[in-house]
Amino acid sequence: MNKSERKKKAYDLFKCGYNCCQSVVVAFEDVLGLDAQTLKNISVGFGGGFGRTRNLCGAVSAFAIVAGLYMPHSDDPKSDKADIYKNLQNMVAIFKERNGSDNCGELLKNIKNLTDGYEPQERDEDYYKMRPCIKLVLDSVDIICDYFAIN
Questions:
Q1: DSSP of the chain
Q2: Cα–Cα dist 151/142, whole Å
């Protein structure tokens, strides 16, 4: 699967109702060694800025899941953590450079009628037009592809 196919898959998943994190993670299903349903289950809680608390953007949280499953690991937890943390910090810096923030609340601060609580907002054409989420999902897929040289 090439980058444009991954981006299309992530786009389609988001448009079908999956959250930002799920949409990004499942776009890498073929290289992560887990089936789509398992990846959706692992990433579901990261939507809405972690459980809809509007903290770390779900599309950014996906970096950790993809990196954790994709990168090789050793028997040295300290070295593994350092490798993952370094890569995640680099990817987050790229995301922030492109989007100004990695915080869901900040990225959505200009959205009118943004709802609170744990109930996901109804998705209609206005929802997709007003929010930057699809762009953020596509940026994250792009960053992961480029960073790990995943086609």
A1: --HHHHHHHHHHHHHTT--HHHHHHHTTHHHHTS-HHHHHHHHGGGTTTTTTSS-B-HHHHHHHHHHHHHS---S-HHHHHHHHHHHHHHHHHHHHHHHS-SBHHHHTTT-TT---SSSPPPP-HHHHHH--HHHHHHHHHHHHHHHHT--
A2: 10
> What backbone phi and psi angles, to 5 degrees, belong to 71?
-75, 145
Q: What is the pLDDT along the chain (151 residues), one digit of tens a residue?
A: 999 999 999 999 999 999 999 999 999 999 999 999 999 999 999 999 999 999 999 999 999 999 999 999 999 999 999 999 999 999 999 999 999 999 999 999 999 888 888 999 989 998 999 999 999 999 999 999 999 999 8
Q: How many Å apart are CA 86 and CA 116, to the nearest integer?
A: 33
Report which of 55, 39, 38 is spatially closest to residue 105, judged by C-alpha positions: 55
Q: Is 54 left (phi over 0), alpha (psi -120 to 50) or beta?
A: left
As given in the structure block, the two tokens for residue 22 are: 């799920």
Is the separation of the CB atoms in 77 and 60 below 8 Å?
Answer: no
pTM of the model as a whole? 0.96
